[in-house]
Design brief:
Distance between the termini: 37 Å
Radius of gyration: 24 Å
Number of strands: 8
Shape: elongated
Number of helices: 4
Strand content: 25-35%
Largest sheet: 6 strands, antiparallel
Strand order of the largest sheet: 1-2-3-4-5-8
Helix content: 25-40%
Length: 173
C-alpha cells in the first residue's frame, strides 16, 4: 500500500511538473489553476490505472504452474465507476508446482490453494484430493493426509466433476 501512495504522489507531481514546464514555454498562457488540477488528475488517473491493472500484473507474475481458479469482481459505492467497470481485488489459485502426488497411488494428491487479496497477505490453504473418487478435503486444524489416502482429523467432501479446483489438481502434466 505504501508503494501505491508513493506512486500516486509521483504521478500527481509528474503531471504538475509537466504543466509548470508548459506554462513556462507558453509564457503564462496556461492558467495557474491548471497546476493543482494536473496534480489531482494525475493522482486520480494513476489510482484508476493501478486498481484495474493490479489483477493482470499480479497473475502475470505467477509461474505457469499456478492455475487461477476464480477472480470475483467487486462493485463499491465509494468508487462509482466500478458499477460500470467492475474490478477484481482478489483471486484464488492452485499451486501445481508445489503439489505432492502419493507414491502409493497417483490419484491422491496434496496441494495448496493461494488466496490472494490486494493489500492483504497471501494465505495458503492446504487441500487433499482424491482424483479417482472425486472428493476433496481441507487440511486444517490438525487434519493429516497420509500417502496411502488415509485422512485423519478431516472430512472428505464430494465434488462435481466440473469443479475448477478438482480439475486443476487432477489434471495430468
Amino acid at each position: 500500500m505504501l508503494m501505491d501512495l508513493i506512486g500516486t504522489a509521483a504521478a500527481g507531481a509528474g503531471l504538475a511538473g509537466f504543466v509548470v514546464i508548459l506554462r513556462h514555454l507558453t509564457k503564462g498562457r496556461v492558467p495557474k489553476w491548471a497546476i493543482p488540477a494536473a496534480i489531482g488528475a494525475g493522482m486520480l488517473l494513476f489510482s484508476i490505472w493501478n486498481e484495474y491493472s493490479w489483477h493482470g500484473r499480479t497473475t502475470g507474475a505467477l509461474p505457469d504452474q499456478v492455475v487461477i481458479l476464480s477472480s470475483p469482481t467487486d462493485k463499491v459505492f465509494y468508487r462509482p465507476w466500478t458499477y460500470l467497470f467492475p474490478v477484481s481485488q482478489r483471486f484464488a489459485a492452485l499451486d501445481r508446482a508445489g503439489m505432492v502426488k502419493s507414491m502409493e497411488n497417483s490419484a491422491f494428491r496434496r496441494a495448496d490453494v493461494l488466496l490472494v487479496q490486494r493489500w492483504s497477505p497471501t494465505k495458503r490453504v492446504a487441500l487433499a484430493f482424491d482424483c479417482a473418487a472425486g472428493r476433496r478435503a481441507d487440511l486444517m486444524e490438525g487434519a493429516e493426509f497420509a500417502p496411502d489416502g488415509t485422512l485423519t482429523g478431516g472430512t472428505w467432501m464430494d465434488v462435481d466433476s466440473q469443479d475448477e479446483m478438482q480439475r486443476a489438481a487432477c489434471q495430468e502434466g
